[in-house]
Sequence to fold (267 residues):
Amino acid sequence: MITILSEADAAITLLSDPLTRRVLSSNSNLRMIANCAVGYNNIDIDAARKLGITVTNTPGVLTEATADLTMALILATTRRLVEGDNEVRHTGRCIWEPLHLLGTSLQGKRLGIIGMGRIGTAVARRAHTFGVEVVGVRSGESLDELLKTSDFISIHVPLTAETRHLIDQAALAKMKRGAYLFNTARGPIVDEDALCDALESGHLAGAGLDVYENEPDVNPRLLKMSNVVLAPHIGSATFETRSAMARIAATDVLRFLRGEKPLHVVT
Ligand code: GLV
Fold:
């Protein structure tokens, strides 16, 4: 990162680029970072502020795509879609049997949404049309009731010092036996080892994940489980959304270099 940024006045960065204090302070000409993501936990914002580096993100345009992917994970996990796809591919056959690959219905169940911001609210809207009762909490509010009463829990808070391992062993233990966990936010919000314990013991029925605690690595324990659906961080990965994100980042860099105020400043 230090080499790449050594001659830059501004940079468009990805969520996988670690912009630490050391990186940010390595080039005194660096004045602006446009992170091509809504999350910006890869950037030491405190350091950027102190160094007078403007940081922007790409909010709004990925809300619906990420909510769609969340529903895709919820449906794929509860209806065992990946298991079914694997079976058809491996056997080359489709046999209808009364008790084969039974999943869990959404109708009449309760979905707890942790983080009722833009994406959480968009998930709530979708879940509602599937006949799901939705309860939500904002970051920092008491989670207990939501954890104890939800059949499905979906995470939509940003990763901060306060939300790191928000879903730890104690939180997982409060979840209903047979509940499902979904994470399309950031991996480190969940203690992945504790999640594996809860899945292996049968306390949780399944999980749908788009993000991991130590990306790009995925916990090998998860890879062995057939009751989890694992997506490769593709919440915003549609042609429409990624184009819009790139346009926002580029436009804000151009505004900044022209001396205008960027539109999506987070510092
Ligand atoms: C994706 O994870 C994003 O933060 O945009």
Observations:
- The first helix runs from residue 2 to 5.
